């Protein structure tokens, strides 16, 4: 399953970061940050095909020796990044897409909280629980 | 676009002086092109030879398809490596290893495909026979040296002009370059020559020298023909190698399958037959991957596979098949990555992987330079990055494993750079076995390698250039953030290499970018790195900045660490002591202590830290108490200071700098003046900033008036000094003086503060520091003088009249006012239509006569008095004329200089301003109707004349008297007096009976109230007229308000309409 999940705001500041226990958290943060380069390039109007303008899932952004990095961007320019092990070949593209959908839903519920101010880091037990369920595969 | 192999060959980066144990040999990387020896040319003595030689070498560089590597030699130096005896059977032969290290060099440098003999000989040479024999001798001795080898020989005759003009330059081949007359001679002699030299006719060429311009063209063709001959050689060689296969069996000769396929591929590559070459190389790789690997032979197989893989990838790139190249590389890595080899030499595995990635990255980059398009997610940068990471892993593992290695077995590595087989261990050279033959010897060899790794290899010299190459690539393919990550890794590498200054410069650059995107975890790790580097080299500003950054709550480091850095680091620097080394610092404590002592002694000047550039641990918000203030009146500025750190921070000497500010653009000459006008507000005392609390400081000040264009002050910066005496004892001096400064009012750092993005959400925040919106600008108003201004005027003015505005100024100040000036102008914003129809004049300026109409819509700065004593009164009259019926607003401005007490018994003159608003509504006072009648009073035609309307025409006859009736009906709210009336006649019109050109009316000194009317009558005749229509003249009416005081009676208003046009 995923080793890291990041929610990144529209101004590219991280809102939420989950890293699987026992992983190199700093390195995964660096990777999530670098994923923004490719997201930015993928969603730039020049590169985007007009047909997939409603597709939020951006697919595999890039793969290093250890990790695969997948991206997703909501219509409000919130970027979701999921990192998996490069050796994990059991995860299909469709499953990743589903994970992003669920993550997006969880995010949407979290920001509906009237006491949450957009752009602030997400501190929400419910969101935390959703992410926990997501990464444990339930 | 096909990619061709120019440039894909000379790889400077790998040619280190140190023999690279894990790279691939130079011969693999060298450009593969047919080798030809050139004999008989003396470029240094003979200019023609020099031209030919230059042309030959030039051809082989840019020309894409014909690749011949020419080597100059002569008959005396010419030699070939000795030939081994041909093996008839491989049955009892066991190969020593996979690839022999001398084989490629042999074909690249020593065994030519072709020996090209240049010889000067004309067909019609007088000494033909001797020369022919000499040439035949040369050829036969060359052939003798070649012996059993299949090297080709070609003869090129250099012919001078006379006998053989090169009429046909299409081919350098002899018979074609002959004229018909000489054809028989040359043909005959050519065949004789071939016969005596034992040459095929196709190996004889003629190169005419008569025109130096044409030589490059001839040599190009010559080279093409020679390359064909050379190709034949390589083809036959490769066939020979391939034929060996028939003697091999799969059990004993697996290694030879690999070797022979590789040789075939190499020879075909020399022939420039890339399609065939790649097949052979791929086959070779396939055979290799089928070999059995053990820890013992792994290294040899790794190196051999690296060589073959490099060849496959390179030829794929040359054939413009980048996807195949990448796929091959992936297969290669996937095959070998799990095979890590013995634990004690694991660093070799990483070294080898790093080298694979670097080589592939380099191949990829060269292909891109040749025009291959690369994309953001697939470009050479990724391979360099991976290479750097593996190189870094190599170092980590090497340091871990090799620390105990000693130099006692160094001799085991003797001859490592001259092994017969690539990749074998020097202590068991020539033995390709699956198990180590002598375990003890093996252990010694391993230790020797470990010792070599530990002492001879400068890891950072490999890693840092890899990072910088990767960065260049990522920069090129628009990946700024990946580049930032690489910069952090590079900084870490510099730190490990103890190049702290460079590390600091790199990491500081990245820090700013992470801060701006608010990735606090990344900021934290970089800040810690910066602190370690700054501490190692005693860079005081960088150290203090990093320590302050770490103190910030945003930085996600452990609180204990933050407190440790603050107490044992920053505070000690402030006290002038050497700070404790930061956690996980690798620097040598003694050296850095020495550097600190030096730095702290030398730092007399304060270190200034721009807090807005950091993630703040202390935040400030400065705000004026009101948006405007009066000059010389006390006002104040509030400074809110918040300490976000976990502990108390003691500061002193809070300073706020105010600078003049103009709303409009400032001329450069004023800027210098503004700098002088800067104001400093200081509080020198100590202030304790309690953790997580907001402290409010009040700075009272009084401002001096400003000169235009400046209209106020803004907060330029806020600063304070960090104080090291947190224990309560006063600061004794010594140590670094650290001044924290916030440009602007501290709001500039808001990006990194807690202020929410959307102001709607401010309600969720505590209504304190975060929501404070500072007033950073204060407008300086001029003080109002204590004066009483009484203005008397009729608010209901009459159109055309000069309305009297009577101003009475009484001074109520305790001290005299000086330089009192009065201005009256329309209130801003001024409408152009009103401005054009308003006239203002001062009565004092021309009191004797009515003011002329040329004056404008305002009077400015009329000097009332040089000095106005307390209690003194001053009267002044102003005149205002409205030319249309409308309401006008005026402002009456009284400027003066008043004395202001700035301190006890200290008085300064200060400009002061008093404003009064006036409103004037103008109405039309009367209407004049003019009518024209015959003497018998029947109305000819009557019409009303509104002021300023043109009169309609009425018909009168020449020389016939007629009457003009003027009726003035009054509509004014006050009675008006009509003083006199007059008709000014045009030429051709005269007063009947008098013949004069003007006639006075009967109205005089007649007062009218609203609703009353007065009439006037004139008798006129038209004496002569040239035009059918004519303007009769003007009716003038002198009038004024009734009961005007005497002094103003001359001020008569004039009503002057045209008296009507008459047609005849």
Could you characterize the architecture of this molecule?
The complex is a heterodimer of chains A (138) and B (1064). In chain A, a hairpin with a 3-residue loop joins strand 3 and strand 4. In chain A, helix 2 packs antiparallel against helix 3. With 138 residues, chain A is an alpha+beta fold. The longest helix of chain A is centred in the N-terminal third of the chain and has 19 residues. Chain A has one domain: Beta-Lactamase (2-Layer Sandwich). Chain A has a five-stranded antiparallel beta sheet with strand order 2-1-5-4-3, with helices on both faces. Chain B has 1064 residues and is an alpha+beta fold. Chain B has six domains: 205 residues, Rossmann fold; 198 residues, no CATH class; 97 residues; 156 residues, Immunoglobulins (Immunoglobulin-like, Sandwich); 137 residues, Immunoglobulins (Immunoglobulin-like, Sandwich); 138 residues, Immunoglobulins (Immunoglobulin-like, Sandwich). Helix content of chain B is 33%, strand content 26%. Chain B has 22 helices and 36 strands. In chain B, the strands form eight sheets. In chain B, strands 6, 8, 10, 11, 13, 14 and 15 form a seven-stranded mixed beta sheet that branches. The two termini of chain B are 97 Å apart. The N terminus and C terminus of chain B are likely disordered. Classes of the chains: A alpha+beta (138), B alpha+beta (1064). At the A-B interface, helix 1 of A face helix 12, helix 15 and helix 17 of B.
List the main descriptive attributes of the protein structure presented here.
heterodimer, A: alpha+beta, Beta-Lactamase, 3 helices, 5 strands, B: Rossmann fold, 6 domains, seven-stranded mixed sheet, five-stranded parallel sheet, 33% helix, 26% strand, elongated, disordered N terminus
């Amino acid at each position: 399953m995923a080793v890291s999940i990041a929610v990144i705001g529209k101004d590219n500041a991280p809102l939420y970061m989950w890293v699987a226990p026992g992983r190199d958290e700093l390195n995964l943060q660096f990777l999530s940050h670098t994923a923004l380069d490719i997201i930015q390039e993928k969603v730039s109007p020049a590169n985007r095909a007009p047909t997939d303008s409603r597709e939020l899932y951006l697919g595999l952004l890039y793969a290093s020796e250890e990790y695969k990095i997948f991206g997703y961007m909501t219509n409000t320019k919130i970027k979701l990044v999921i990192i998996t092990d490069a050796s994990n070949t059991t995860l299909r593209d469709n499953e990743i897409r589903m994970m992003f959908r669920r993550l997006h839903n969880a995010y949407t519920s979290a920001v509906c909280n009237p006491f949450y101010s957009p752009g602030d880091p997400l501190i929400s037990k419910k969101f935390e629980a959703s992410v926990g369920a997501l990464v444990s595969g339930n | 676009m096909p990619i061709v192999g120019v440039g894909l060959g000379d790889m400077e980066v790998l040619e280190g002086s140190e023999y690279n144990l894990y790279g691939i040999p130079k011969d693999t990387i060298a450009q593969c092109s047919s080798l030809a020896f050139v004999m008989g040319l003396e470029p240094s003595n003979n200019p023609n030879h020099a031209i030919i030689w230059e042309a030959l070498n030039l051809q082989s560089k840019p020309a894409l398809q014909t690749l011949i590597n020419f080597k100059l030699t002569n008959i005396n130096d010419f030699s070939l490596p000795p030939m081994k005896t041909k093996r008839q059977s491989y049955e009892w032969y066991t190969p020593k290893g996979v690839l022999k290290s001398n084989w490629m060099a042999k074909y690249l440098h020593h065994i030519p495909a072709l020996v090209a003999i240049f010889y000067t000989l004309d067909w019609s040479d007088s000494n033909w026979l001797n020369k022919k024999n000499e040439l035949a001798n040369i050829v036969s001795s060359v052939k003798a040296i070649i012996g059993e080898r299949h090297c080709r020989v070609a003869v090129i005759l250099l012919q001078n002009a006379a006998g053989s003009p090169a009429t046909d330059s299409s081919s350098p081949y002899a018979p074609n370059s002959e004229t018909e007359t000489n054809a028989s001679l040359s043909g005959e002699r050519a065949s004789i020559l071939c016969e005596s030299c034992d040459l095929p006719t196709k190996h004889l060429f003629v190169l005419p020298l008569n025109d130096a311009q044409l030589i490059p063209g001839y040599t190009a063709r010559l080279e093409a023909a020679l390359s064909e001959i050379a190709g034949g050689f390589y083809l036959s060689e490769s066939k020979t190698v391939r034929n060996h296969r028939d003697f091999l069996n799969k059990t004993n000769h697996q290694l030879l399958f690999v070797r022979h396929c590789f040789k075939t591929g190499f020879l075909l590559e020399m022939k420039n037959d890339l399609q065939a070459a790649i097949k052979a190389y791929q086959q070779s790789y396939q055979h290799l991957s089928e070999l059995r690997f053990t820890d013992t032979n792994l290294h040899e197989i790794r190196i051999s596979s690296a060589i073959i893989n490099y060849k496959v990838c390179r030829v794929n790139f040359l054939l413009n098949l980048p996807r195949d190249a990448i796929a091959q590389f992936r297969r290669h890595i996937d095959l070998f990555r799990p095979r890590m080899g013995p634990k004690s030499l694991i660093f070799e595995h990483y070294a080898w992987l790093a080298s694979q990635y670097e080589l592939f990255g380099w191949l990829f980059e060269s292909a891109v330079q040749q025009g291959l398009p690369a994309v953001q997610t697939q470009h050479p940068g990724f391979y360099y990055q991976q290479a750097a990471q593996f190189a870094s892993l190599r170092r980590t593992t090497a340091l871990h494993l090799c620390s105990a290695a000693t130099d006692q077995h160094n001799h085991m590595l003797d001859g490592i750079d001259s092994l017969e087989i690539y990749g074998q261990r020097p202590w068991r050279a020539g033995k390709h076995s699956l198990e180590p033959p002598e375990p003890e010897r093996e252990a010694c060899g391993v230790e020797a390698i470990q010792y070599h790794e530990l002492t001879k290899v400068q890891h950072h010299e490999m890693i840092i250039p890899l990072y910088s190459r990767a960065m260049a690539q990522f920069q090129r393919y628009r990946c700024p953030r990946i580049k930032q990550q690489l910069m952090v890794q590079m900084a870490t590498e510099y730190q490990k290499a103890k190049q702290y200054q460079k590390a600091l410069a790199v990491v500081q650059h990245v820090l700013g970018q992470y801060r701006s995107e608010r990735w606090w975890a990344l900021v934290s790790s970089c800040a810690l790195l910066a602190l370690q580097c700054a501490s190692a080299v005693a860079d005081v500003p960088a150290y203090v900045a990093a320590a302050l950054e770490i103190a910030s709550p945003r930085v996600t480091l452990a609180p204990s660490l933050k407190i440790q850095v603050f107490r044992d680091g920053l505070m000690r620097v402030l006290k002038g002591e050497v700070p404790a080394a930061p956690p996980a610092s690798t620097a040598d404590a003694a050296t850095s202590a020495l550097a600190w002592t030096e730095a702290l002694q030398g730092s007399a000047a304060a270190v200034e830290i721009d807090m807005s550039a950091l993630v703040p641990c202390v935040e400030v918000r400065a705000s004026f108490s009101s948006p405007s203030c009066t000059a010389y009146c006390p006002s104040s500025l509030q400074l809110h200071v918040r300490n976000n750190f976990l502990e108390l921070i003691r500061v002193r000497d809070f300073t706020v700098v105010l600078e003049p500010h103009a709303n409009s653009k400032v001329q450069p000459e004023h800027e210098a003046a503004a700098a002088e006008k800067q104001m400093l507000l200081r509080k020198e005392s100590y202030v304790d900033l309690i953790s997580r609390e907001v402290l409010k400081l009040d700075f009272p000040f009084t401002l001096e008036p400003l000169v235009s264009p400046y209209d106020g002050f803004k907060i330029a910066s806020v600063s304070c000094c960090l104080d090291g005496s947190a224990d309560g004892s006063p600061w004794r001096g010594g140590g670094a003086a650290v001044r924290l400064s916030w440009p602007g009012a501290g709001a500039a750092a808001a990006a990194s503060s807690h202020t929410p993005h959307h102001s709607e959400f401010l309600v969720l925040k505590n209504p304190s520091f975060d929501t404070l919106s500072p007033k950073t600008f204060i407008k300086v108003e001029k003080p109002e003088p204590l004066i009483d201004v009484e203005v008397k005027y009729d608010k209901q003015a009459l159109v055309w009249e000069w309305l009297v505005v009577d101003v009475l100024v009484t001074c109520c100040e305790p001290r005299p006012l000086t330089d009192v000036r009065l201005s009256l102008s329309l209130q801003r914003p001024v409408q152009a239509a009103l401005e054009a129809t308003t006239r203002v004049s001062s009565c004092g300026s021309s009191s004797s006569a009515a003011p002329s109409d040329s004056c404008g819509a305002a009077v400015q700065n009329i000097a009332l008095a040089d000095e106005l004593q307390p209690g003194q009164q001053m009267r002044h009259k102003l005149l205002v004329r409205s030319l249309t019926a409308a309401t006008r607003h005026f402002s009456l401005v009284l400027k003066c200089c008043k004395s202001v007490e700035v301190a006890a018994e200290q008085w300064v003159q200060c400009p002061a301003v008093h404003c009064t608003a006036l409103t004037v509504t103008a109405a039309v006072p009367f209407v004049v109707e003019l009518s024209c009648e015959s003497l018998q009073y029947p109305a000819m035609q009557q019409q009303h004349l509104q002021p300023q309307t043109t009169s309609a025409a009425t018909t009168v006859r020449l020389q016939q008297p007629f009457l003009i009736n003027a009726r003035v009906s009054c509509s004014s709210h006050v009675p008006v007096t009509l003083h006199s009336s007059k008709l000014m006649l045009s030429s051709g019109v005269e007063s009947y009976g008098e013949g004069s050109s003007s006639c006075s009316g009967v109205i005089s000194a007649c007062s009218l109230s609203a609703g009353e009317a007065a009439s006037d009558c004139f008798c006129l005749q038209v004496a002569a007229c040239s035009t059918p229509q004519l303007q009769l003249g003007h009716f003038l009416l002198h009038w004024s308000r009734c009961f005007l005081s005497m002094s103003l009676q001359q001020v008569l208003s004039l009503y002057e309409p045209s008296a009507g046009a008459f047609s005849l």
